[in-house]
């Protein structure tokens, strides 16, 4: 076994144990996160089953091209993040910095586009909260079961804002973590530690990707 | 071969200082990352909440002493039982055994110096405290009247009480259980000492490990549900509101998806405690260790697919009801296996009736009654009659108070010498344990009869013919109160005056007994090497 010069935290016997614990900790945290979003998606699924036609039509009011671009951006950021991890693993400071910066740029761009999308929905009067005007035009018969179509559409948009809002919140946290990693990588004091922490951060970033894929599928693609 | 590992700057010849010798300054407690001190932070906080919740219970029982609703108005009565439920479930029972005894013992039992993430461990206590503050604010702001279950539409459209503050409190405290769970899972996986294989883990560790998994997997669903309730109440998003096409039953599904597994968060650690005590005081190895482990994991797993038994009469489909009923019968099987195995462990044992053992044996009686009546409730037709009556109240109090709290008391008495280095008065402890057993049965057994006769839960008045049973139940509460107050006195007394305990007063097995009492800061002078199973009695 190669000897490792850096010392583990006091509760650990060696660096391997510490690395293993850190990664497992993030995996367990992601399990929690999965169930958090799982509850939301379960709710969505049940309501979608009850109001299939209205939800399908309301989906058409969202901006699919922008969301598709965002999906591409986020998936690419997954790639750059993986490259940053590889670079840190190979102890290449400049490459680590470069790929981290690229990841942060892509993530920020994603949030910018998402913000623009929300703004355009606000302009089209599709934000149903805080007594904002809500105008929804529909070609369906006026009622879905016992409820007016506009009311059910409101429900759809509420779910949409909750899901994308919660996701954006996770993106913000992720960007914060990446910014911290960028600073650590810039100083490059303990490369082995940067390597270890970057792998943990990478897991989280990949998770945000996956959640977005689900949001994209449920809210943008299910049109029939 | 022994692997010896010293922590930074430690002198291998000095006697290591015990964890309490670091001083008693506020700072040394509030900024500690030692799992043993954090256990104490939790122990003090949950005890405060326990007496807070008990005061509410006492008022409830006093109101029910007479048939007329005379002591409290219907509104205050609603607020009292809601407060009682919320405080007892989230601020006492869920953290009780895991966050105190689990925090203290889990690292020691696996032979580690601390949890995998000591700072997260401290953070979890701060989050708990913050959640607690919100709950107290809710009470000052007039209380909640939805019951601990926050059912919609009470909690969203109709209630004028401080629902939001209370929901925020519960939302926040959820993160503390998640962090505790995360720490337990990672510690059990990665921090075991050499030779401490999965097959040699004490059942207490297994039970807390399974509990931790449930905490990590179920709590986030409650988190998102409360988030939706909060948004519904403030912004009217309609997810649970039929007027907007939402579904009120969806709330119940999400709530019980968390809250049924949550009852196993309360009972599994209790089962862990009882396993340790029963083995030690009958001087027998646990009968069927593997079966016990499999039962623990089966309970944790099946616990996730039975939530619909709370909704048999809520309008879920009959087929759903039949399936949920079947799965509920199924989950009772591993519980029964465990009970039988404890009994078999007693067989031909050299049993001694010290206080911890009295608590453990009481647990066996109370859990059996509570569990069996759960099986009655799982029968579809019978539940139509019993749902929302005192029968249900009695069922879960037998398990949660009779089972979980009794085991907590038993664990506290068993490990007290380890926690503090002191012994308590044997006579007083025996008295308190017996008072608890009598008080519990006297309080809750009449409630089965009441419920079966048709007394609904959550009413502050009742017809005269229920009077005798209600009076008995309130009398029982008095005895019960004695059973909880006495330990507070003699245990506090023992802290300073109790006889010194020595490392292993019960002659118990398990790594935690192989180190001085109170244990040194990093638990062991050397990382122990484990060469035998956990119950090498005889
Ligand atoms: C042997 C396993 C168990 C079975 C078969 C079982 C079955 C049931 C059933 C069918 C109900 C629904 C009754 C109704 O509302 O009509 C119920 C309610 C309840 N059970 Fe159990 N149970 C078991 C174990 C537990 C445990 C271990 C706990 C707690 C530690 C517990 C706590 C509760 C609570 C709190 C309620 C009522 C919740 C409420 O409506 O406020 N049960 N149980
Ligand atoms: Cu249940």
UniProtKB/TrEMBL annotation, chain A:
The keyword Membrane applies. SUPFAM superfamilies: Cytochrome c oxidase subunit III-like. Keywords: Membrane, Transmembrane, Transmembrane helix. Pfam families: COX3 (PF00510). It is a multi-pass membrane protein. The chain crosses the membrane at residues 21-47, 67-87, 99-119, 159-183, 203-222. It is found in: Cell membrane; Membrane. Belongs to the cytochrome c oxidase subunit 3 family. This is Cytochrome c oxidase subunit 3. It comes from Microbulbifer halophilus. The lineage of its organism: Bacteria, Pseudomonadati, Pseudomonadota, Gammaproteobacteria, Cellvibrionales.
TrEMBL record, chain B:
The chain crosses the membrane at residues 39-60, 80-105, 125-144, 164-186, 206-230, 250-274, 286-306, 318-337, 358-382, 394-416, 428-448, 468-491. Keywords: Electron transport, Heme, Iron, Membrane, Metal-binding, Respiratory chain, Transmembrane, Transmembrane helix, Transport. Residues 29-531 form the Cytochrome oxidase subunit I profile domain. It is a multi-pass membrane protein. It comes from the Bacteria. The keyword Metal-binding applies. It is found in: Membrane. It holds the Pfam family COX1. The keyword S-adenosyl-L-methionine does not apply. Belongs to the heme-copper respiratory oxidase family. PANTHER family: CYTOCHROME C OXIDASE SUBUNIT 1. This is Cbb3-type cytochrome c oxidase subunit I. The lineage of its organism: Bacteria, Pseudomonadati, Pseudomonadota, Gammaproteobacteria, Cellvibrionales.
């Amino acid at each position: 076994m190669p000897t490792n010069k850096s010392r583990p935290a006091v509760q650990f016997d060696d660096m391997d144990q510490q690395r293993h614990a850190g990664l497992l900790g993030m995996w367990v945290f992601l399990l929690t996160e999965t169930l958090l979003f799982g509850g939301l998606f379960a709710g969505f699924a049940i309501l979608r089953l009850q109001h299939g036609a209205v939800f399908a039509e309301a989906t058409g009011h969202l901006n699919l091209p922008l969301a598709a671009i965002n999906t591409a951006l986020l998936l690419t950021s997954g790639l750059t993040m993986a490259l940053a991890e590889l670079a840190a693993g190979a102890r290449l400071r400049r490459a680590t910095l470069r790929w981290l910066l690229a990841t942060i740029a892509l993530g920020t761009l994603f949030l910018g586009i998402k913000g623009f999308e929300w703004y355009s929905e606000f302009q089209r009067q599709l934000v149903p909260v805080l007594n904002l005007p809500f105008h929804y035009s529909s070609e369906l018969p006026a009622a879905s079961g016992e409820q007016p179509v506009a009311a059910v559409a409101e429900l759809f948009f509420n779910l949409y804002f909750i899901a994308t809002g919660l996701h954006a919140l996770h993106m913000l946290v992720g960007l914060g973590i990446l910014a911290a990693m960028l600073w650590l990588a810039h100083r490059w004091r303990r490369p082995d530690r940067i390597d270890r922490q970057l792998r943990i951060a990478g897991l989280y970033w990949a998770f945000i990707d996956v959640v977005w894929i689900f949001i994209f599928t449920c809210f943008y693609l299910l049109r029939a | 071969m022994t692997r010896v590992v010293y922590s930074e700057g430690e002198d291998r010849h000095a006697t290591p200082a015990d964890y309490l010798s670091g001083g008693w300054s506020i700072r040394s407690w509030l900024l500690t990352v030692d799992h043993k001190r954090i256990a104490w932070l939790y122990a003090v906080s949950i005890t405060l909440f326990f007496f807070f919740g008990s005061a509410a219970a006492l008022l409830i029982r006093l109101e029910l002493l007479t048939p007329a609703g005379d002591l409290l108005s219907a509104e205050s009565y609603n607020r009292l039982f809601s407060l009682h439920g919320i405080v007892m479930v989230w601020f006492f029972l869920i953290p009780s055994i895991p966050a105190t005894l689990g925090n203290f013992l889990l690292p020691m039992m696996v032979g580690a110096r601390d949890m995998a993430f000591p700072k997260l461990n401290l953070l979890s206590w701060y989050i708990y405290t913050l959640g607690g503050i919100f709950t107290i604010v809710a009470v000052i702001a007039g209380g909640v009247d939805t019951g601990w279950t926050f059912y919609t539409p009470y909690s969203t459209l109709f209630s004028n009480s401080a629902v939001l503050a209370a929901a925020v409190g519960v939302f926040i405290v959820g993160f503390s259980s998640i962090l505790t769970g995360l720490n337990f899972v990672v510690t059990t996986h990665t921090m075991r000492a050499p030779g401490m294989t999965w097959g040699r883990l004490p059942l207490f560790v297994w039970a807390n490990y399974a509990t931790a998994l449930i905490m990590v997997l179920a709590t986030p669903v409650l988190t998102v549900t409360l988030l939706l309730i909060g948004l519904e109440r403030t912004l009217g998003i309609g997810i649970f509101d039929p007027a907007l096409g939402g579904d009120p039953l969806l709330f119940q599904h999400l709530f019980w998806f968390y809250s049924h597994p949550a009852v196993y968060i309360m009972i599994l650690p209790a089962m862990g405690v009882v396993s340790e005590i029963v083995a030690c005081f009958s001087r027998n190895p646990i009968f069927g260790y593997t079966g016990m482990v499999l039962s623990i994991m089966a309970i944790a797993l099946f616990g996730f697919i039975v939530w619909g038994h709370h909704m048999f009469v809520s309008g879920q489909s009959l087929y759903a009801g039949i399936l949920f009923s079947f799965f509920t019968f199924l989950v009772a099987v591993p519980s029964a296996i465990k009970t039988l195995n404890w009994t078999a462990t007693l067989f031909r044992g050299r049993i001694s009736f010290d206080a911890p053992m009295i608590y453990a044996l009481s647990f066996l009686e109370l859990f059996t009654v509570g569990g069996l009546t759960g099986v009655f409730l799982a029968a579809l037709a019978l539940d139509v009659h019993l749902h929302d009556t005192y029968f249900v109240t009695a069922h879960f109090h037998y398990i949660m108070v009779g089972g979980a709290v009794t085991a907590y008391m038993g664990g506290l008495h068993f490990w007290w010498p380890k926690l503090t280095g002191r012994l308590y008065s044997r006579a007083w402890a025996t008295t308190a344990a017996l008072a608890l057993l009598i008080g519990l049965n006297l309080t809750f057994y009449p409630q089965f009869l009441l419920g079966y006769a048709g007394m609904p839960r959550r009413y502050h008045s009742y017809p005269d013919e229920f009077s005798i049973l209600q009076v008995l139940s309130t009398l029982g509460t008095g005895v019960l109160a004695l059973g909880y107050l006495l330990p507070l006195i003699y245990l506090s007394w023992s802290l300073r005056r109790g006889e010194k305990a020595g490392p292993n007063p019960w002659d118990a097995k398990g790594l935690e007994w192989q180190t001085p009492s109170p244990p040194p800061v990093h638990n062991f002078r050397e990382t122990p090497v484990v060469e035998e199973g956990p119950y090498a009695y005889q």
